[in-house]
Structures are given as C-alpha cells and as structure tokens.
Specification:
By secondary structure, the protein is mainly alpha-helical. It has a single domain, classed as Up-down Bundle (Growth Hormone, Chain: A). It is built from 21 helices and no strands. The radius of gyration is 21 Å and the shape is globular.
Length: 402
C-alpha cells in the first residue's frame, strides 16, 4: 500500500483520507445512516409514547438501542472477518432497512416494535467492526486513525443535529414518515457502499459457516484480545475514557434542575460534549502522527479532569464548557488507534473492532445508568465530580505504559 503525504504534511491529513478512492462514499453513507438512525429513535420514542402513554415504554427505546451491543458485538464478531467487509456492510444496511420498514406495519404490537429495534442493535456493532476492518485495508497506517476520527466527527455532529432535526420532523411529518425516511437512509447507505467503495478481502475466510463455528471463532477473538496484555490495556483505555465522561449526559437534566434552570437547558450539556468532541478531533487531526502519539496521556487525562469542576456547582453555560473540554479529550483515539492496529494480527481485526465498538457502547450505557441511579441519592454535581476523580485515576493507570 502506498504511503501518503501525511508523513510530511500533517495538515493535509483529513484531505488525504478523502482523496482515497471510495472514502467519500464511506463517509457519506455513515452520515446518512447516522442522521436517519438518530431521528428514528426520536420518532419511535414518540410513536410508542403516543400509543401507550407510558414513559417507561418510551424509555425502552434507548435501552433496546444499547442492550444488544454487548451480545451482538461478542457472539457475532467473527462474521466481520469471515466475509468481505463490503458484503457484510451492504447486508447489514439492507437488514436494518427491512427491520425499520417492518415497524411501519399498522397496529404492530409494541413488543414487536422493540424486538425489531433489538435486531438492528445486534446488527450495528457488526457493521461498525466490518467498516473499521475495511478502513484498515483501504487506508495506510498513518491515514487509518484519521479515517476513524472522521467517522467519530460525523457521529458527534449527527448527535448535535440528529435529535433536533428528528424532533422538528416528527412535528412536521409524523413519526411514521420519519421511520420511512430512516429505512430509506439505510438503503442509500447500502447503495453508496456497494457501488462506490473498493472491495477489501476477508481476513479469515476459511472454516465452517455454521452458527456454532461463528460463536467459537468470536470467542477466539475475545481470548486473543484478552491474552495480549498491551492490546487489552489499549482497548480498555478506549472504553474508560467515554465510560466515565459520559456521566454528564446521564445527569444533564438532573444537574440543570439542581442549578435552578429550566429542564430544556439540559440541551446545552448534551450539545457541549458533542461539540467538544468534534473540535478536538479536527484539531488533533492536523498534528503529526508522532505528536498524536505523545498526546495520548494528556488527552485521556484531559477527558476526565474537567468533570472535577462540577464539585464547584458551575452555572449551566460553564458546565457545558467543562463538558466540551472533556469531549475534546476523546481525540486521544487518534494516537491509540495506530497502536491497536500494530498490536493486532490482520486475521483478528474485524473481531477486534467489533468488540471494541460494542464494548464502548455498552460501557457508556452502563455509565449513564449508574450515574442516573447515584444521582437519585446524591447531588448530581457531586456524582459527576467524583466520577472525574475516579476516571482520572483509571485512565492514568491504563495509559502509563503506553
């Protein structure tokens, strides 16, 4: 694979990624499906609430979005290595489109709606793992972390706009039409990936094609990660950073109430972390690979220390600024990704990235749930501040030997 000019001209990094054949289609597909998925979560939550009048049933939409990652990302991870990544990506998109389209069936029972959502949740980590494995083939070692950074930037930008756009569109066209748009977004993503991205080879194509064999090889992938101590520490570090810093989202509404602000002001906190992440990714992407490597420890620590400021009970705008600083630290992955890539045998990369992505989502979900539980007994600012202290200690322990 040819070396990019990124070695000598770091500022051209993101542009170099976009010049690689097929990369524009990859990122366009990700943007389309991300916005569609986030808007659909809003639509499905509102649809279920309108039909049941139950806040619990509506909240289960988010639970069903997070829950399958832990299972689907581990049990099915070997599929990302068994087949050509492009084939896996297109199949995942089309299956997701079918599931979302199934939600449009009139009078479909609520458990069936949530069941279809669970299926899309099982598919998501496999899609993300196969996409990362594909990037590792299509991009050289220097551009790979920038490619993943651009995906994260698109994701966080979609978070900022997706929920807001979803709320507006639900009011304008109704939840069923918005679900239709989401189904179409997966089809568009499949077309972009299927026709405009280069094919990459399967990394481990041999073996039985049975569910038992898939589960067995997925287990081998987990053992490979866990037995490799440097790799294990790196993966745990990529989980710990967002796992601790995500508590701000879990306690956003409670904190704004404690600060004496309207509940709607919680949007400042939700947006703050996402905006900080986008800015951090864009700034760090302009640096050289060696500089990004040296910044790993400062960035992982910087993702946690701002949370300690919540002990002081900052105003909502100041709290949003602290969360933005915390989010900027997530750019540490640009330094960590090359280390993970070099520490992983090519035949395990699909499984590794699938497990990494599923673990990240699971840890964030657990962090939000735990912080919400603690926030019912303690002041939200105290919980966030204590999490900052704990998170700083944990990430320093994991990063000290990298």
């Amino acid at each position: 694979m040819q070396q990019s000019a990124v070695d000598t001209i770091p500022a051209s990094g993101v542009r170099s990624v976009l010049r690689v054949p097929g990369m524009r289609a990859v990122f366009a597909a990700h943007a389309v499906s991300m916005v569609g998925t986030l808007a659909a979560e809003v639509a499905l939550s509102i649809l279920i609430f309108e039909r049941t009048g139950s806040a619990l049933w509506s909240a289960l939409v988010l639970v069903c979005s997070f829950l399958p990652y832990a299972v689907g990302g581990t049990v099915l991870s070997s599929l990302a290595d068994r087949f050509r990544p492009r084939r896996v990506l297109v199949c995942c998109d089309l299956l997701s489109a079918v599931c979302i389209a199934g939600m449009l069936i009139p009078r479909l029972p609520i458990p069936a709606l949530l069941g279809l959502l669970l299926i899309t949740g099982f598919i998501a980590p496999l899609f993300q793992g196969a996409r990362a494995a594909s990037l590792s083939h299509l991009l050289d070692a220097h551009l790979f972390p920038l490619g993943r950074s651009l995906l994260r930037t698109i994701s966080q930008t979609a978070v900022v706009f997706g929920f807001a756009v979803g709320s507006v569109l639900v009011a304008a066209i109704g939840p069923l039409w918005l679900l239709t748009v989401d189904a179409c977004s997966f089809v568009v993503s499949a077309v972009l990936i299927g026709f405009w991205t280069p094919a990459a080879p399967a990394t481990a194509p041999d073996g039985e094609r049975t569910l038992r064999a898939v589960v067995k090889e997925s287990g081998e992938g987990l053992r490979h990660i866990w037995a490799n101590r440097p790799l294990r520490r790196l993966v745990l570090l990529t989980w710990a950073v967002p796992g601790f810093s995500s508590v701000g989202d879990g306690l956003a509404v409670a904190y704004t109430a404690e600060a004496g602000s309207a509940a709607t002001a919680a949007g400042w906190l939700f947006t703050g972390y996402a905006v900080g992440t986008v800015v951090g990714e864009l700034v760090v992407a302009q640096l050289s690979p060696d500089t990004r490597r040296r910044l790993i420890t400062p960035l992982v620590v910087g993702s946690q220390i701002p949370l300690i400021g919540f002990f002081l009970g900052p105003s909502v705008p100041m709290a949003a600024a602290l969360l933005a600083l915390s989010g900027a630290g997530f750019a540490c992955n640009q330094g960590i990704d090359p280390l993970i890539l070099s520490a992983t045998a090519p035949t395990y990369r699909g499984r590794l990235f699938t497990v990494q992505n599923s673990g990240l989502m699971t840890v964030q979900g657990l962090g939000v749930a735990l912080s919400g539980t603690l926030g019912t007994h303690l002041h939200p600012g105290v919980v966030i501040g204590a999490t900052g202290i704990t998170g700083t200690a944990v990430v320093l322990t994991l990063a000290r030997r990298q």
